Amino acid sequence: MEEYRSIQFRSNGVPKNGFAKISIVEWNLIRNKSIVYGGGAAEIACSLAVDAAADKYPGVEQYAIRAFAEALDSVPMALAENSGLQPIETLSAVKSQQLKENIPFYGIDCNDVGTNDMREQNVFETLIGKQQQILLATQVVKMILKIDDVISNSEY
């Protein structure tokens, strides 16, 4: 029989001990019970929303916003490719299905179940995990752009 110790928390809310007993996903669900549909459904829905919002901005800003929407599509494309599907055709089909039916939980059918409905397939992710992924990716891109700006402005 396993012995469980009481969990003591650090000031940032992370447990000092007993953390090995739960996974990161479980810990994220303890912190925030919100979930999003997996299989790239959240990224596709965000991509469609960002792409629609790009129409409100004139000029060069619109291109940057559309590039961000295109970057969000890389996750479902990778899922499709890693599942042995045709990535471009699969993503296009799922995006059009989400747009046509206005249902944000259609994602990539990686398990070849026959439906893109992630609700039916019980494919979920934690909202905190998804937020952290997008924030980290955005921060990395901003850092790369800053480095590029410094290098291009220097005199050699």
**CATH level-1 class:** Mainly Alpha
User: Do you know the CATH architecture?
Assistant: Orthogonal Bundle
- Biggest sheet strand order reads 1-2
Radius of gyration: 20 Å
Q: What's the rounded overall pLDDT mean?
A: 83
Walkthrough of the structure:
The structure is a single chain. This protein is mainly alpha-helical. The protein has a single domain (36-146), classed as Orthogonal Bundle (GROEL, domain 1), CATH 1.10.560.10. It is 58% helix and 4% strand. The chain has helices spanning 24-31, 41-54, 60-72, 74-82, 87-101, 118-121, 127-153, and strands spanning 35-37, 124-126. A two-stranded antiparallel ribbon has the order 1-2. The longest helix has 27 residues, at 127-153. The chain is globular and about 50 Å long. The N and C termini lie far apart (68 Å). 21% of the residues are buried. Mean pLDDT is 83; it is low at 1-5.
Any chance you could write out the topology, listing elements then pairs?
Blueprint: H1 24-31, E1 35-37, H2 41-54, H3 60-72, H4 74-82, H5 87-101, H6 118-121, E2 124-126, H7 127-153
Antiparallel strand pairs: 1-2
Keywords: ATP-binding, Chaperone, Nucleotide-binding
Pfam families: Cpn60_TCP1 (PF00118)
InterPro entries: Chaperone_TCP-1, Cpn60/GroEL/TCP-1, GROEL-like_equatorial_sf
